[in-house]
Structures are given as C-alpha cells and as structure tokens.
Amino acid sequence: MKRILIVKVTSLGDIVETLPVVSDLRRAFPSAKVDWAADAAFADIIRWNPGVDRVLSAPLRKFKKARNWNDLKDIGASIGELRAEKYDVIVDIHGVYKSAIIAFIARGKRRFGYLNQDLGERGAAFAYNARFGPRPHTDAWRGMRVSVADALGYQLDETPDYNVQLPAPTRSLDIPSGKPIAMLFHATSADVKKWPKEHWGEVGRWLVARGYVIALPWGTERERDEAQTIAALVPDAIVLPKLTVEECAHWIEASELVVGTDTGLVHLAHALQRRTVMLFAATSREHFGVSAPGRSVSVGDHGAPPDVPQVLEAIESVMGTPARTVSGSAQSGAMVR
C-alpha cells in the first residue's frame, strides 16, 4: 500500500472525528502516503494533523453560496491536483453525492464506499467498485474507523489518536492566567440544539463559585447578543472577540474545561484532550456523542435535553473532584484546595 486517499468533505465536527483514521492508517501502513480530500472551509483543521501528506481542497460550500467565478476556477484547479496522483485505495467515509463524485474523479484501483443502506445519499453508490462491510453497531466515529480497518485488513487500536498539533498563534489572544478557564459553547447552527440561556447562567455561576473564569465564544452577531445575555448572569464572564477557528482552538487548548452543545468546536475540545461535557437536545447522544473515561462525557439526548443538575454532575465527573482555584498558569492544570 503506497498511497491512500481519505474522502471526508464536511463538516467541522465530522472532520475532527475522522482524524483518528489517519493515525490508524499510519500504524497499519507506515510507509504509505495519506492524502485527504475535503471542503476548503475545513482544510486547515486537517493540516493540523502531521500524518496527512497532502490536503486536497475545493471551495465547494463557498461556491454553492456565492456562485463566484473565481471559486469555480479553484474547483477546476483542485480537480487537476486530485488527479495528479494514482491511489492504491480511496476510502469515501462520507457517503453522499459530493464525496462520491470526488472519489469517482480521483484515480484509484479500489474505491470503497458504504453499502447502499448505510449511505447518506443512495445515489452515491455509482462511484464505488468495493464496499465496506455492514455498518457496525457503535457510534458514528468508531464506525468510520471500524469500516476502514475491516476493508483494508488491519487490527483497530481502540484508543483514537487525533494527533492535533496547532500552529503557533499569529497574534496575541490575551488569554488570562491565574485561574482555570471554562469555555461555554452556547451557540449552535440550529435553534433546536440550544440550551436555555438561564441554564447557562446557572452553570456559569456554579463554576465561578469554584474558581473558574468563564469565556463565551460566538460566531454571528446573534450569537454575540446571546453571549452578552449569558455574561450578564455570570460574574466577570468574558465575551470573547470574534475568533477564527484556529484562534478558538488556542483558547480551547488553554482551558481547563469546555461545556457546550453538539457542535464542531466541542468535538475539537475532545480531540485536544480537554475536559469536555457535550450537551444533546436534538441529535443522538449514542451516535454522535463524545466519551473518554474521566475526561469527556455526553449528556441529554434527542428530544430530552439535560437539566442543570445533570450537567453539573457531568462536570464533576470529568473534573474528578469539585473544581478548585489554580495556582499559577491556567494552562498548567495544577490545582490547589
């Protein structure tokens, strides 16, 4: 096996949760080159994994929104780059039309895709000359890893290795030291995933009483207004400036705790091995949740959002003991009673 192409196009959380596949392939085929085809909006996150040799990206989302001629030219150029290599195997672990088209255009001996009943879009089946086995009875993230391992004939290491290495910040982010930081990711792409602002206020005050400084990120003007509403309920809470995904990742890395809804940046917190609590209200916890004993936990479920006591209990479960004030740098993780 000399060259392998991963096809996973979007979105942020899915891209993050696919990173362990790279480490799996590296262990199984140490001398192989591993490339990845994705939407340009998420290419930088893939580049944070040094196990990826080449990131092939096209502004698919951007073109769909703006229909800009330059974006179309970039898509054309990316097709040429994609076809510049011939792959021993292509693994489409997305399973929709756009990923299938990429897999079909790429030059490869074997193009693996999901069985028809497991595809996100049935029509994607046209692209494949080989199939993964039946979808395993596990969460979506481990399921991807199992599918590729079974198809390519290697043993899966049960501990996922995200291997995320952030580049140095390009500007000062004014991350406070002296107290542990808890980031509360209240914002989501869909209102049905949201948790009441009053609940966030209760959690924030509970954490402040235990020595934390609360940081509230946001992405849109509406989300900034929501962050300011929550901040008014929590003493000394910080409403962050608008950050890039990379800058937000540095804040996450500097934090002691991340609590948030089922969003990509909370998946990133889990990948960066922060203590993470993920809240579910409109999606399946069993299918899309995060879990690492003593470090990451998911609460709530589709149609059954958690209440405040459940979230506080989850926070204590990942902290090991009730939070205490940090002595020294917040990044150190050293805590004193």
From TrEMBL:
Catalyzed chemical reaction(s): an alpha-Kdo-(2->4)-alpha-Kdo-(2->6)-lipid A + ADP-L-glycero-beta-D-manno-heptose = an L-alpha-D-Hep-(1->5)-[alpha-Kdo-(2->4)]-alpha-Kdo-(2->6)-lipid A + ADP + H(+)
EC number assigned by the record: 2.4.99.23
Residue intervals passing through the bilayer: none
The protein, known as: Lipopolysaccharide heptosyltransferase 1
Family statement: Belongs to the glycosyltransferase 9 family.
Annotated source species: Caballeronia insecticola
Highest taxon above the source species: Bacteria
InterPro entries cross-referenced by the UniProt entry: Glyco_trans_9, LipoPS_heptosylTferase-I, LPS_LOS_Heptosyltrfase
Record localization: Cell inner membrane
SUPFAM superfamilies (UniProt xref): UDP-Glycosyltransferase/glycogen phosphorylase (SSF53756)
Pfam families for this protein: Glyco_transf_9
Gene Ontology terms: cellular component: cytosol; plasma membrane
Single annotated GO MF: ADP-heptose-lipopolysaccharide heptosyltransferase activity
Pathway: Bacterial outer membrane biogenesis; LPS core biosynthesis
Keywords: Cell inner membrane, Cell membrane, Glycosyltransferase, Lipopolysaccharide biosynthesis, Membrane, Transferase
